[in-house]
Amino acid sequence: MAVLVTGGLGYIGSHTAVALIEKGIKVVICDDLSNSDINALDRIFKITNVRPKFHKTDLKDYKKTELIFKRNSIDAVIHFAGYKAVGESVEKPVMYYENNLLSTLNLLKAMKKFNVKNFVFSSSATVYKVSDIMPLKENFPLAQTNPYGRSKYFIEEILHDVCISDKNMNVAALRYFNPIGAHKSGLLGENPNGIPNNLMPFITKVAIGKFDKLKVFGNDYPTKDGTGVRDYIHVLDLAKGHICALEKLKEKPGFFVCNLGTGKGYSVLEIVKEFEKQSGVEIPYEITKRRPGDIAECYADCEKAEKELGFKAEYSLADMCRDSWNFQKNNPEGYKSVQ
Ligand code: UFG
Question: What DSSP letter does each residue of 35-104 carry, written as one string?
Fold first, then answer.
């Protein structure tokens, strides 16, 4: 019996694969390598001494998706694979909906055929309606501002319908806040193609000299220092959250939604300051105008995760900054760097 990790060579997927292997769980990875690197597989091996079976598969192809289930005895799926750039999704909505929805539908079809009943889904805090009331609870209203976020929302709804139609089906939709940090070994971390969209990978690229300075998108928000506040969670905590979710599915909860965050909000300038402290590298920055679509504050209510999953994030912001830097420093060229 094995857990299929789709997108298992990506940032969160690879860390979760390691966490599963360390729990003695057999892992099968599929990834189309569109936003990940095959070298991550060697890195997983270096950390765990286990080389998971790997399928280079585009899940939009149903026949190929089915083959993974034919060739392996899968008893649960953790579905990370998906496009995730907010800006790109606004430019190319059809591509986003096609990729994110079709891959999920194909997985669900194959799961039905092979009688696989446990599914953990990578959802996002971006499904919540913009709100002045924080922290965000799972029962707050939902509304999205871009096709990426809407694809996550649509998939949650589809999964809910599937659970209504099939009482044996169990789904955990995990709404991630802002994952940062990297594996302690420095072998796995966030390795975006091209110019990073997100704050931490941009900061680490400034720190190794790939960019001159960080642009801070606005300092006129109604927050502690005017810059955007987010709930940053260590990717190792997030990986652990998936193990907790798999355990939860054994209780046969049907459709289950849960936030994965820390419940604490930090501003952009706080992140910059802590990163400088942990790395000893100065991060030059300039304040620019707000990024369209950004909100002032976003952080999680963690009560449900604690009560129902027994999950509590453990790593501090200092850990997150230190580990992000450790990965970047050891891998100036990402996974192309020799280890
Ligand atoms: N920021 C900058 N400069 C940058 C990048 C980001 O100032 O170069 C600021 C943003 O304005 C924001 C904060 O840093 O205040 C965090 O921005 P990120 O882009 O890192 O993260 P977001 O919160 O905007 O979005 C992330 C994911 C989305 C996901 C969302 C969930 O990228 O996929 O969290 O809330 F949907």
Answer: SS-THHHHHHHHHHS---EEEE--TT-HHHHHHHHHHS-EEEEEE--S---HHHHHH-HHHHHHHHHHHH
Residue 206 has pLDDT above 90, yes or no: yes
Ligand 1: centre distance to CA 255 (Å): 28
| Rounded CA separation 134/140 (Å) | 10
* DSSP one-letter code for 335: G
Residue 56 has which token pair? 């280079």
Of 291, 295, 299, 324, the one to substitute when testing ligand 1's pocket (max ligand atoms within 8 A of C-beta) is: 291
Residue 124 CB less than 6 A away from ligand 1:
yes
Question: β-strand 74-79 against 2-6: which pairing, if any?
Answer: parallel
pLDDT (tens digit per residue) in 236-292: 999 999 999 999 999 999 999 999 999 999 999 999 999 999 999 999 999 999 998
- Peptide bond preceding 135: is omega within 30 degrees of 0, i.e. cis? yes
| CB atoms near residue 140 (< 10 Å) | 14
